[in-house]
Backbone:
């Protein structure tokens, strides 16, 4: 019996697990058998691997071949096992030197012509390979830039099975005109990506585009500085959507860890911008109000579990425009990510995990008729009440900043644009405030004031007693809940950091209380 072994990676959520791919050739009825819970796509691998091997001028063993994926209990999805299967098989048929692929992990799909194609989820897969101690990871050329983000492991990008075999046999690489063009395209795409990024940085969007709405602009600044959730209500056309879309322009770049987390999620979802291997800016994700629960928090079939908008917005902004129009059950699904910072999806005995720590931004009209002028509204007070109350309860209770926007006046629209502060100026203040927060939280696991748990707001980060005096009455008459109290204190810390002070005073507490209550007319 001839045996050969190589390794691949199974992904579950954003967690990769090393899989041993073992090929055994025995006497018996000729054929290829896959064992170890392969899903449909993996069974299709059988046909792809066979065609790819034959089209790479290799011979197909006309014997009984068993491919085993171990651990068998691990659910395995997708086409990224093709290369490992082909190499194990050729190893077992003694077409490769013994030990040629020791220490290697192989990730890639095979085309029928033997080409190695890119797959989604390469970043978390290579991270898993590096953690498992692999010294070399074989990937498709299209995945090279993404795979190279992982430190401590050698990434070899190969265009075809033929080229990979030459490498494992220590032969010169075959002439492959197609390959070089793939490479060239990848390089072009990469520079395009850089251009796109700096454009985004300079900003097609800028807070300077927004006239008036001083209060809402302030709310965006506080939200950016402290990571606080916010809600804008107001008449149609007053700039709610416009303001919300500009929140990312106030946020600092992602640090290295956050960038890798965000990139891993987008890698699995297949939403990495072309030619931009590492996402370094906070993402902005705005699902439509007709979005399903799965689209919002993730889900899907056994075969394909996809992260939802909440995870695609990880370390960035999740914007729910026209938020009362979302189906109630759909919004309730946000409770888990809001509380735990991640979404867990259980399928076939295992749980996929996707990080989902985002700043939630809601926008809403006051009423369903959406009349452009408040005076034209035909809704009864009870209809209006019911409309906004769709948002209330668990969700609105978690929103720290609530701003009521007015119509922009004609004078404001005519306002000299140069008077409106650009994003860059506001972003600098945000950065300075975040730096103060970081210094205070040094050695602690939280990055922003919004992350500080309630118990710490009563111990390490308790504001002075006299500053809190104005909260006694709202607490006594029920206008302020216990959860609301914590939120007010967190925002007060952010206001303190923005003001360059050391501890919150009655001023910051009062302002934070006003922002928390914001929607009450
Ligand atoms: N404050 C503002 N400054 C400059 N332009 C504005 C402002 N408000 C509205 N506009 C203009 O009106 C358009 C509509 O604004 P926007 O979509 O942000 O309003 P909205 O409050 O989201 O309305 P709706 O409730 O209908 O969604 C914008 O594209 C912009 O051209
Ligand atoms: Mg809008
Ligand atoms: Zn109305």
Residues:
């Amino acid at each position: 019996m001839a045996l050969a072994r190589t390794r691949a990676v199974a992904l579950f959520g954003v967690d990769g697990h090393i899989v041993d791919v073992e090929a055994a050739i025995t006497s018996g009825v000729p054929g290829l058998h896959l064992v170890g819970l392969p899903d449909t796509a993996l069974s299709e691998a059988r046909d792809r691997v066979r065609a790819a091997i034959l089209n790479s001028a290799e011979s197909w063993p006309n014997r009984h071949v068993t491919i085993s994926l171990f651990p068998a209990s691990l659910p395995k999805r997708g086409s990224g096992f093709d290369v490992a299967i082909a190499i194990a098989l050729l190893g077992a048929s003694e077409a490769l030197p013994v030990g040629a692929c020791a220490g290697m992990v192989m990730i890639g799909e095979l085309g029928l012509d033997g080409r190695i194609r890119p797959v989604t989820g390469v970043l978390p897969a290579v991270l898993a390979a590096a953690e498992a101690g692999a010294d070399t990871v074989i990937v498709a050329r299209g995945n090279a830039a993404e795979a190279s983000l992982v430190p401590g492991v050698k990434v070899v990008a190969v265009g075809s099975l033929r080229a990979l075999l030459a490498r494992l046999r220590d032969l010169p690489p075959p002439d492959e005109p197609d390959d070089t063009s793939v490479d060239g395209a990848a390089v072009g795409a990469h520079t395009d990506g850089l251009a796109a990024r700096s454009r985004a940085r300079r900003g097609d969007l800028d807070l300077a585009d927004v006239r008036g709405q001083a209060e809402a602009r302030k709310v965006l600044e506080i939200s950016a500085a402290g990571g606080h959730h916010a809600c804008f209500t107001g008449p149609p056309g007053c700039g709610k959507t416009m303001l919300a879309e500009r929140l990312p322009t106030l946020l600092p770049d992602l640090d290295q860890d956050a960038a890798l987390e965000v990139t891993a999620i987008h890698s699995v979802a297949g939403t990495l911008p072309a030619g931009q291997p590492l996402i370094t800016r906070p993402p902005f994700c705005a699902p439509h109000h007709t979005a399903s629960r799965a689209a919002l928090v993730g889900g899907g079939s056994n075969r394909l579990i996809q992260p939802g908008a909440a995870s695609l917005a990880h370390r960035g902004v999740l914007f729910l425009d026209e938020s009362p129009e979302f189906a109630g059950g759909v919004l309730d699904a946000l409770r888990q990510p809001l509380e735990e910072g991640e979404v867990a999806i259980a399928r076939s005995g295992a749980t996929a995990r996707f990080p989902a720590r985002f700043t939630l931004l809601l926008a809403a009209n006051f009423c369903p008729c959406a009349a452009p002028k408040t005076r034209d509204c035909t809704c009864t007070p009870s209809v209006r009440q019911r409309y906004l109350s769709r948002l209330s309860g668990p969700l609105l209770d978690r929103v720290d900043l609530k701003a009521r926007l007015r119509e922009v006046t004609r004078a404001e629209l005519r306002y000299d644009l140069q008077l409106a502060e650009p994003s860059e100026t506001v972003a600098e203040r945000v950065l300075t405030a975040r730096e103060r927060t970081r210094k205070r939280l040094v050695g602690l696991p939280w990055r922003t004031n919004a992350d500080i748990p309630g118990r710490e707001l009563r111990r390490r980060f308790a504001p002075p007693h006299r500053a809190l005096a104005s909260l006694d009455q709202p607490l006594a008459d029920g206008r302020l809940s216990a959860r609301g109290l914590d939120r007010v204190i967190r925002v007060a810390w952010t206001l303190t950091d923005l003001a360059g002070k050391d501890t919150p005073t009655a001023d910051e507490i009062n302002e934070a209380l006003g922002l928390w209550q914001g929607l009450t007319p």
